[in-house]
Amino acid sequence: MMSIQDKPQDSSPERNSSPTQREARLRALIEHSHEVSLLLDDQGTILYASPALTHVLGYLPEEISGQAMLSWVHPLDQSEASENIASLQAHTRQKLFTTQRYRHKDGSWRWLELRAVNKLADPQVAALICSLRDITTLKDAEIEQQRLVEESDLAHTHLLTVLQQMPAGVMIAEAPSGKLLLSNDQVRQIWHHSFPEANEVDKYDRYKGFHSDGTPYAGYEWPLARSIRQGESVREEEITFLRGDGTRGIMSVSSAPILNTQNEIIAGVVVFIDISERKRLEQLKDNFISMVSHELKTPVTSIKGYTQLLQKHFQRSDEKQSLYFLAKMNYQLDKLTDLINEILSISQLDLGMLNLRPKVFDLVEVVREELESQQATTATHKLQLKGVEKLTITGDCERIGQVIHHLVSNAIKYSPGRKQVCIEICHSDQAALIHIQDYGIGIDSEHFSRLFERFYRVDEPLEQTFPGLGIGLYLAHEIIQRHQGHIWVESQKGQGSTFSFSLPLQPHTAIAKETSHDNH
Length: 520
Ligand code: ADP
Fold this sequence. Notes:
Bound molecules: adenosine-5'-diphosphate
Distance between the termini: 136 Å
CATH class of the largest domain: Alpha Beta
EC number: 2.7.13.3
Domain PAS: 22-95
Region (Disordered): 1-22
Shape: rod-shaped
Number of helices: 13
Low-confidence stretches: 1-8
Strand order of the largest sheet: 7-6-11-10-9-8
Oligomer: single chain
GO molecular function: phosphoprotein phosphatase activity; phosphorelay sensor kinase activity
CATH superfamily of the largest domain: Histidine kinase-like ATPase, C-terminal domain
Helix content: 25-40%
Structural class: alpha+beta
CATH architecture of the largest domain: 2-Layer Sandwich
Protein name: histidine kinase
Radius of gyration: 46 Å
């Protein structure tokens, strides 16, 4: 236990200094401090300010002596500051610690940390003692940080709002793991509630998707997985999927990788919509077109038959004018038949019903027959066949005949005023080759890459004068591709075009020697 006598001696070096020396040292301490020391009377009027005031607020101490401290406080901090002073005055030995903005002499505002203590009751002091420290830099950094946090919170909220309101399922997943970071409500709606979340690419096969041939999507095959792993951008891939309630639907899926500034993949985003209803309606439309073109075929074939009977009849009686009109009718009927066949084939293609019926046949024979029938209806052009005499291939001879028919009619159609159309059949070691050359209007090379697209027609004034739907070359391309062949064009504007296609040869293909013969 410690007694009065036991009280430890003051061991600081200050114990040996005189009171005057101590006071001088204290004054020096206050006057050289970076903090401002203030003495206020009970009304908050400044009695004393240390020289640091000039550094902190720009004023000389004598400039503000006798003025109310509140007059420098920021309007927004005024009421708090008045309350602080009132409460400080009311309670003896009350201490205060706060931060407020004060006006600098240059008009700017400075954040000051204020500590104060009430020493009004101490007769030797009889003042409120305050110290002020400039924390503007600190406070500004704090405010900036706060602003950035709020800004990023706001951006995040905006992003979530946009995601939630998007009429499509959206998922964002981390790379390379594939862990799901974000998804919207549409995702659950499209998948129907029991949406199977997968947190790594290898488990994406929990999303039950199927290729067009019915095989399931492996985890790594999903567009999001491909974007995360290979950086692939996928556009509108159509995937059949199994919903949580056991029903099937079709979705159109697009995905893309998200890269950082170093071009590294940090995430992937996928957007998908349920297109089941649209697909159902498309199928209805395709069925309808298929049915209509089928129904049209029968009466047209029958009219064609009667036209031929009439032709024979008038040939016997040598009625030239009637024969002339019948030839015109026949020509138009052939055009109509071509059109119906094209539309029918396109709808079969869309319905997945364009099935090939392959058999071994002589390609030269098919070409020859086709040219003979076209030559019979063409008075303007001479169709010339050259090349090998026999070339057996395996394929759907009707479909290949359809391609030849279309390319030859195009050659005739797009070469008005020119007589010659040359058809050549040749072969390489592996493929049969057919070239159909005309000397007509030709095609600019800028159109080559799109010519075989569905509905593509060269959109120039001259070309617009020719009738057509822009589906023949698309159909030809599809048929040749299904035979593992290729189709291409070489052309020069104003000089004519050569459309060619190749078909793979079987190992024991029969080939006869070359020949040249006209079909007229
Ligand atoms: P279309 O019914 O319009 O002829 P296609 O699919 O057969 O449809 O051809 C697409 C387009 O390619 C045509 O509109 C035409 O501009 C161009 N084209 C096709 N064949 C030829 C050709 N032999 N000469 C010039 N242009 C051609």
